[in-house]
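Preliminary data (for renewal application), flavin mononucleotide complex.
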Amino acid sequence: MVERRFPRYKDLAPLMNFKTPDFNAKRRRLAGALTIQDLQKIAQRRTPKAAFDYTEGAAEAEISLRRARQAFEDIQFNPGILRDVSTVNTGWDVLGAPVALPFGIAPTGFTRMMQTEGELAGSAAAGAAGIPFSLSTMGTTSIEAVKAANPDGRNWFQLYMWNDRDRSMALVERAAAAGFDTLLVTVDVPVAGARLRDKRNGFSIPPQLTIGTVLNALPRPEWWINFLTTEPLAFASLSRMSGTVGELLDTMFDPTVTFEDLAWIKAQWPGKLVVKGVQSLADARTLADMGIDGITLSNHGGRQLDRAPIPFHLLPEVAREVGGDMEIHLDTGIMSGADIVASIALGARFTMVGRAYLYGLMAGGREGVDRTIAILGEQVARTMKLLGVASLEELNPSHVIQLERLVPRAIAPAQVAAASAAVSRPSVGRSAARSARKPPAATVAVEVADPAVAALAVSATQTPTSTPKRAPAKRKPAAPKVVAAPKA
Ligand SMILES: Cc1cc2nc3c(=O)[nH]c(=O)nc-3n(C[C@H](O)[C@H](O)[C@H](O)COP(=O)(O)O)c2cc1C
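Predicted structure:
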């Protein structure tokens, strides 16, 4: 039987330690956001539909983006235990200079339309956090203003090669003169992807007022006040602007750009050069042979080719094959620090976030971007500690298994044999012949030398939810961290 008594003041007093309310609405709002998804919800409430959809949306049926996010959801982490993780080092060198965290801000166009502080907020927040900021060719703040907002930090310039090459290269010269240390050459936009949300919203530059936009504006007065009382939206680097976003992009991009043009750009840029938008091992190899400093495995946040390769799935093989020759960076779909840690473990040197940054910006300008970086940074550090690693160098492929929901459709062993036979390498032919005679499924997967055929073989032997054993990567040995003997 429980004995009851009257509550005493001395027991109640410690429970009545009420927090003083924060009367700063923005601070309260941002402090309540614990994840990037929380910032995304705040952003949606505060931004007109057309601008929010422009940020949130992807191309066609938005399958590329959904799959990229699903690939990150399908991570299994393998932690180590009993390591000293009282302090973790979340930084290392990227392209020859230090970063405090293994991610940076990806280049995004039209940024001041999402929130009036735009690139100034992004670059200042990045500089304060010790991570790189990338300014897009389609940015809405000038190269020099970004430099002034982030004078001591790392600024990268993203180049779209467009029809007027002299003007493209004039931008590159300005970026070099302003001390930008890295040029990102984006190569996945020969034409604009079909952003259907923008078409449906009648989204144009500058935004057009219709009855719909006015009604949508009513609950979002701050955005409109900002929009109407600050410098009109304009491209800081380009002068021509009118029409829908797709029309605008299509008149500007040069679909004739080739590897030769890239070599020509490289010869003129004094700093590091990263090619953004690489989506195959073959192209990665060609770029490594050209002496490019780094590549970004990316499908442009799903905004270009729909049903494109999933960058996170490409990563292990690309890192294993060419990671020794150049840095491998990755973006598309990153929404948490755990996604970043998994990418580093599988061989990425660096990652970039586009929407995660823009959600923070739309949720609260500069402080919102600070919040994005803080959330991701805390998640990176916590995930590392929970994995039992104290530095990025200790992360290796043994920490992550990519569970595969998106495996190719299972096919009959006979088809595997036929595919193997089509490949002219003798060893492949032999193993295919063996597998045709007797289909010991596991053996087929191990013996086939050609990666494409091996993929078929694996798919023929697995249920879609099974977890394949991954070959150990050459790049970083999977040796456990050497742990100091416990103190007596
Ligand atoms: C609103 C928006 C605008 C973008 N503009 C550019 C751009 O001008 N140049 C570029 O190379 N990439 C651009 N990107 C792609 C990003 O640099 C990055 O590849 C992508 O956002 C990564 O995916 P995530 O948004 O899921 O992080 C843009 C992305 C978004 C969301």
